[in-house]
């Protein structure tokens, strides 16, 4: 599987931490050349240097803030100017914000929608135009187990991930005639900086490794699946809850996620 994109170029967003680093490493070990993007340039450069020397691949680094609506055009222009044909686009960058909705920072919530949804649509549109012309290309989109139901106290995040899942599943079907594969990767709790960034450090038990999640996603994409849930327990949870009334599922999620300490609620 890791050789599926050998000698081709992949663009990985959110490549400075967590699942993005694991995806980059997995692809590099299979001989895929990489365009790495995120805000933290120092981390991207260190990763690019390590992967280039370890796996003898080619790398490019494009620092960009996807909360800026102009960023996808900038990334796309960079790859075109450098003559890079992106055969695999990985929309991985994303973040959450834990706490009671009315007290969360409004700007941060709007940025979340921009990064987790609008930037995903924008980048996908830019690169799919080329892929359909070539009748070749693959897209992986990071959704979540949070995509399958509402999650009170991280409601906006769960809604963005529901968007990502449905967007990917719809495109997967639409793009079949062009020979283009699209897959939503749905991890449950995963070891990364996600929970610290979201301010949700109490939910990191039973987290999978980012490496396992990355492998699961790439294997599913190469196998032509339109979505994959990483981990059997997560799979059973996401599908099992469909047998339960939605109201009850949401109420149970609220009980699990309700902040213990009011001061930590936003
Ligand atoms: N960890 C988990 O439990 C789960 C994570 N996911 C999803 O996986 C994806 C990766 O998250 P994960 O690796 O866990 O989290 P991390 O916080 O470890 O990594 C997030 C990545 O996204 C990048 N990013 C965040 N904001 C921006 C921005 N404004 N512009 C550009 N890049 C940005 C970060 O880079 P930088 O800060 O340098 O910009 C970083 O590289 C996300 O989409 C998340 O929703 C899904 C399910 C579970
Ligand atoms: N599914 C997760 C995030 O998306 C989590 O369990 O934290």
UniProtKB/TrEMBL annotation:
<dbReference type="InterPro" id="IPR020904">
    <property type="entry name" value="Sc_DH/Rdtase_CS"/>
</dbReference>
<keyword id="KW-0560">Oxidoreductase</keyword>
<dbReference type="InterPro" id="IPR002347">
    <property type="entry name" value="SDR_fam"/>
</dbReference>
<comment type="similarity">
    <text>Belongs to the short-chain dehydrogenases/reductases (SDR) family.</text>
</comment>
<dbReference type="GO" id="GO:0035527">
    <property type="term" value="F:3-hydroxypropionate dehydrogenase (NADP+) activity"/>
</dbReference>
<dbReference type="Pfam" id="PF00106">
    <property type="entry name" value="adh_short"/>
</dbReference>
<comment type="function">
    <text>NADP-dependent dehydrogenase with broad substrate specificity acting on 3-hydroxy acids. Catalyzes the NADP-dependent oxidation of L-allo-threonine to L-2-amino-3-keto-butyrate, which is spontaneously decarboxylated into aminoacetone. Also acts on D-threonine, L-serine, D-serine, D-3-hydroxyisobutyrate, L-3-hydroxyisobutyrate, D-glycerate and L-glycerate. Able to catalyze the reduction of the malonic semialdehyde to 3-hydroxypropionic acid.</text>
</comment>
<protein>
    <recommendedName>
        <fullName>NADP-dependent 3-hydroxy acid dehydrogenase YdfG</fullName>
        <ecNumber>1.1.1.298</ecNumber>
        <ecNumber>1.1.1.381</ecNumber>
    </recommendedName>
</protein>
<dbReference type="InterPro" id="IPR036291">
    <property type="entry name" value="NAD(P)-bd_dom_sf"/>
</dbReference>
